[in-house]
Amino acid sequence: MKEIRLGGIPIGDNHPPFIIAEMSGNHNQSLKKALEIVDAAAAAGAHALKLQTYTADLMTLDLDTGDFFIQDPDSLWQGRSLFNLYEEAHTPWEWHQPIYDRCRERGIIPFSTPFHPKAVDFLEQLDTPFYKIASFENNDLPLIRHVARTGKPLIVSTGMASIGEIEELVRTAKEAGCDQIVLLKCTSTYPASPADSHLRTIPHLKQMFGCEAGLSDHTPGIGAAVAGVALGATVIEKHFTISRAEGGVDAAFSLEPREMAMLVSETKTAWEALGGVQYGLSRKEIGSLKFRRSLYISRDVSPGETLTEDNVRIIRPGYGLPPKYMEQIVGRKVAVDAKAGTPVSWALFG
């Protein structure tokens, strides 16, 4: 698998998970709020901050009837037109430069999800280091082709996509010149249920497509993300806001700063804990050997005295013979004096 670097940071099993804070529409149409989100994401330790680059007219038609109106009672956005929703959620293009500048000042990598070739061309002017394709656009092969032609790394959420569709998008990207691809397991419901996350797909994605794999997570909290890292996720993306109480189109399934800091910390801990397959004594366990069980004289014995379960016990610490020799030494006579507290050794028998 070709090594992937996102904004200069290496991605893979030998590196801590790469954490993306997704701003989306949580700026609530305030540039000041957007810059505060940048500062908070950087302070929490996220590696990158992701924007979404579109305008409502590049996403849909300005209609509020039929297919263009959200009537699903289970949707967070029920009762709104698609155009109205995207108009509220979009990040004005003139904000991108100051947001990118603030990210770079704070040491966090700025990038974006483009939803149209025009957005890609705009983002190229900002020296965007890599790109993301959202789940709802993973079937837009012309868009994927346009992004791939930049030659920059590409992250793709795989929500709703069949194996055949994923194969097609990966092939399209590679044929267009992109050989650094990260596929994210994603459940495209908002919020998502942990039971619908199916994280065991992550190693399967990696094996089947020869790509790095990660998780775009819409579940509450950080549990699913930590589990994803345990299953091999090398990139984690979570929506991020200053405060869910302030509302916003994505606030309900976004992490707050304290939670993002926990995500960064706990996913790194999960990655560190994976290690490799290991049995037996490790270097750092040597000092703990003394706390194992072993055989000790528990009552003073004299030369010629027979060892029994009354004068030998299996106890801590571990400086005597291992407990497995108990049956061999019971019934044997000692050749020397042995006080209570003497570790049993073969030397006791002459």
From TrEMBL:
Keywords: Transferase. It comes from the Bacteria. Gene3D superfamilies: Aldolase class I (3.20.20.70), Antifreeze-like/N-acetylneuraminic acid synthase C-terminal domain (3.90.1210.10). Its EC number is 2.5.1.97. Signal peptide: none annotated. The keyword Lipoprotein does not apply. This is Pseudaminic acid synthase. GO terms for molecular function: transferase activity. The keyword Transferase applies. InterPro entries: AFP_Neu5c_C_sf, Aldolase_TIM, PseI-like, PseI/NeuA/B-like_N, Pseudaminic_synth_PseI, SAF, SAF_AFP_Neu5Ac, SAF_PseI/NeuA/NeuB. Residues 294-350 form the AFP-like domain.
